[in-house]
Amino acid sequence: MTRGSTLPAHRLPHLTGRLPIPAQARTSQAPLPSPSLEAFNTAGAEETLSALLGCLHSLCWARRVADHRPYPTLDALLAASDEAAYDLMPEDLTEALAGEPLPALPKDAYEAAHMALGAAHAAYTARFGYTFVICLDGVPPAETLDHVLEGIRSRLTNDPEDERVVAAEELRRLARQRLAGFLRGTAP
Q: pTM of the predicted model, to two decimals?
């Protein structure tokens, strides 16, 4: 299938309220905590808040995650991160969205791609008043540009309230991805 000069707009399914946290699979043997998790659990409050704010720029979220330490496993920490993200109040969500950068394009993206992303982002910001956020976890690098542009274009058709729910879900996914990467030592 060839694409024209613009991608068709795709309406995301209507999302209402909070999304449930998926049940964690139970294993017969509890996983051992990693040394990185141990360091996270024992770090000072200021150091922990700083690290968490690098994952999601919400002081409320960071404090809530930090205050529930120690975590026995990475899965427990990620579940707490999800729960704290689901419970963000509108002002906390606004704070988190204000701290988000634009999605990064691959280093070899051509100039027209940067122009297309800039134009799409300007339209998104004008419509919704905040930076477009999207979690690219699992998207192959060669598909990043198409995924980001398609995401912006399709989400531009959203009602502002629906888009805020979608943006909150993307922030939750980003925080989860960044936190796991930070503890594994692979944070960007």
A: 0.76
